[in-house]
Amino acid sequence: MRNNIEDIYNNISIDQYKTDIGFRTLVEGVNDYLYIIPEYQRKYKWKWEQVQELAVSLIRGLPIPPIYVWRNTMTGDLEIIDGQQRVISLFLYYVGKYFRNEKKSCFDYRLIDIKEFDNFELALSNTFPLKNKAFEMKHNGEKYDISYSSLPAKLRKKVDYTTISIIEIKVNSDDGVEDAIHRIFANLNAGGTKLETQEIRNGIFAGKFYNMLKDINANNIRWRKLYGKQIDNKEKDMECLLKLCAYKYYCKFENGKFNIENYSGKMRKFLDEFSAISMEFDEQKVKEYRTSIENFIDKFEFDRKIESLIVFEGIFVVMDKTSVCKKISFETYNTIKNRVLDTLDKRTAQRDNMIRRWGEIYEFLSKND
């Protein structure tokens, strides 16, 4: 029986509780792990100029947007679901530090091992080296040092007690608390700095399968050499690995021809739908996909950065769906890329282009297998 809208509404209860806390209480809470950044959060991306601008706003008494949190009933932790860029920036101001390599200030929270260190500052600096940094503010053409440690006692006390709103969200839902939290995360992040499509997926579809992809993306040495050592700020590396898995699930090879199910020509919709399915995968299924990806990556015999992920993905489809199994040298990769150049225009994701590309790759590899 179909539920009416009133039944659906009654089965979902989302309450918000607002608490105002002082700046110092917040940042010390971050350092003591009272506030946790969960695995589905996007990377920290703020540049030095943005961090300093937030510090200036704090000094001038301008309002800081609220921080949204959710208390994980399993761990007791307060998980930050919106505002983590501001929270980490305020923390960096408090400790008077920034990243040693300012051009590579983006960092992935998943790489920080908080279990091995007594506080967040030590855990962060162990993975992403920090340096002392002075904060400045301009006023009437003059520069003033506003570093927290340099503030006059009276002003520092004022800053310490500057209130920042913490809004705790409590959810009761028949659809599952975690699913509701992930969707709230996506909604809260719809404004402001725009999230990349894969960043939103990372939030909504967090789970065993996505954890596996994240682990390969961060720790598979050959993959990092093929894609590029620096983890992609826009999550295109994660999206590429996700595509391989979606192709494994939906692609077929029958009577010498390739086909792809459930594909309307819109890659975003295709990957979203597969991601939803992947949340139901058990441990064995996740392991199967991990093995497929890692075995495929190991087929590449060179350590250079690949120029075309589209070709890389096409080679995966051919090897996963046919009997072709061979090592890929840099020369072989380039030969394949040159053979399919006419399918690498702006319509690379068009169904006919994809199927034709896979066919040409198969024809070449099977003849040279």
TrEMBL record:
InterPro entries: GmrSD_N. This is GmrSD restriction endonucleases N-terminal domain-containing protein. The lineage of its organism: Bacteria, Bacillati, Bacillota, Clostridia, Lachnospirales. Pfam families: GmrSD_N (PF03235). Residues 28-205 form the GmrSD restriction endonucleases N-terminal domain. It comes from [Clostridium] polysaccharolyticum.
